């Protein structure tokens, strides 16, 4: 998800059967100590934990990848060997092409020996959420946070982009992941709530009152097509919608998992804070039986 403005309890599933080795069921070393889980983290800024300090050493600064993101939390809890190539602003195309000069395509980190892959992806494709949030933010200033100016102007435009562009892009990306790592458990995490269900918090989150449900519905649609793509490609979808309800960017600092624009802690504007990343890690581990 675009770092500058990027952008839902997880269902417990059994591990893959005979077609793929169970996570953690790896051959022991000579000293009988199990080899660590081979884990690759892909995806955008919600995977990268962009905005949470400190940033990962040796990673392209533009990616704003944090050592406090959910994949690092999972690796710390499980002893997995993590290769984290998540990058703020990543789109599905960046799985197979270079996002920045000198930065390898994310799928270069994946191989047949990879056992676990996690990601958030799709929110940046076609700039759908960035344009929606930016446009709605500007509109809210013009109306002093009243009405639904963004919905009035754009209507179904963003939902059409989600359905017609994001969905096929995510599905194609997940098929490419499966081709590179046929033995891996692939986990796609839904985006936790940014908007509250009804009442907003303008100007901390500069979205007009009537556009709050409009954008929340758009995020629900985004997560819905990502879940559909995951289901259709044999990936596990971790639904953050119930878990993150009441932890959106309009909640008190002690309760929120996603930060607002004004008054955000650190640099995590419209992104998960460290608590949000930790909760995403817990949801993933629960979903695939690592907790």
How do the strands and helices of this protein lay out in sequence?
Elements: E1 38-41, H1 45-48, H2 70-78, E2 81-84, E3 116-119, H3 128-142, H4 149-154, H5 157-180, E4 185-189, H6 212-232, E5 236-238, H7 241-244, H8 274-287
Parallel strand pairs: 1-2, 1-3, 3-4, 4-5
Helix pairs in contact: 2-8, 5-6
Question: What does it look like?
Answer:
This protein has helices at residues 45-48, 70-78, 128-142, 149-154, 157-180, 212-232, 241-244, 274-287, and strands at 38-41, 81-84, 116-119, 185-189, 236-238. The chain has 291 residues and is of the alpha/beta class. A five-stranded parallel sheet has the order 2-1-3-4-5, with helices on both faces. Helix 2 crosses helix 8 (274-287) and helix 5 (157-180) packs parallel to helix 6 (212-232). The two termini are 27 Å apart.
Descriptive keywords:
five-stranded parallel sheet, 5 strands, 7% strand, globular, alpha/beta, single chain, 33% helix, disordered N terminus, 8 helices, 291 residues
Percent in helix? 25-40%
* pLDDT averaged over residues: 88
**How far apart lie the N and C ends?**
27 Å
Q: What string gives the helices and strands in order?
A: EHHEEHHHEHEHH
Sketch the major β-sheet: 5 strands, parallel
Which regions contain 5 or more consecutive residues with pLDDT less than 50? 1-22
Structure annotation, total helices:
8
- Secondary structure class reads alpha/beta
| Percentage beta strand | 5-15%
Number of strands: 5
Q: Give the C-alpha Rg.
A: 19 Å
The gross shape turns out to be: globular
- Major sheet: order of its strands? 2-1-3-4-5
């Amino acid at each position: 998800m675009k770092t500058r403005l990027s952008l839902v309890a997880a269902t417990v599933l059994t591990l893959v059967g005979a077609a793929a080795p169970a996570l953690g069921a790896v051959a022991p070393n000579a000293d009988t100590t199990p080899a660590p889980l081979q884990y690759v983290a892909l995806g955008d800024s919600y995977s990268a934990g962009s905005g949470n300090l400190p940033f990962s050493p040796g990673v392209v600064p533009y990616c704003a990848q944090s050592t406090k993101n959910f994949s690092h939390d999972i690796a710390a809890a499980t002893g997995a060997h993590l290769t984290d190539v998540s990058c703020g602003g990543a789109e599905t195309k960046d799985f197979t092409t270079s996002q920045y000069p000198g930065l390898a395509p994310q799928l270069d980190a994946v191989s047949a020996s990879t056992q676990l892959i996690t990601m958030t992806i799709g929110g940046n494709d076609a700039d759908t959420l960035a344009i929606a949030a930016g446009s709605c933010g500007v509109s809210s200033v013009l109306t002093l946070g009243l009405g639904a100016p963004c919905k009035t102007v754009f209507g179904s435009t963003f939902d059409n982009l989600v359905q017609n562009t994001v969905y096929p892009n995510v599905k194609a990306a997940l098929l490419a992941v499966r081709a590179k790592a046929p033995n891996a458990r692939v986990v796609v995490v839904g985006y936790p709530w940014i908007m509250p269900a009804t009442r907003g918090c303008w100007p901390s989150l500069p979205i007009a009152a009537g556009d709050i449900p409009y954008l929340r519905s758009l995020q629900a649609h985004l997560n819905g097509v990502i879940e559909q793509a995951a289901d259709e490609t044999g990936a596990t979808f971790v639904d953050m919608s119930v878990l993150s309800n009441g932890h959106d960017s309009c909640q008190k600092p002690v309760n929120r998992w996603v930060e607002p624009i004004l008054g955000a802690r650190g640099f995590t504007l419209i992104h998960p804070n460290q608590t949000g990343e930790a909760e995403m890690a817990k949801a993933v581990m629960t979903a695939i039986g690592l907790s």
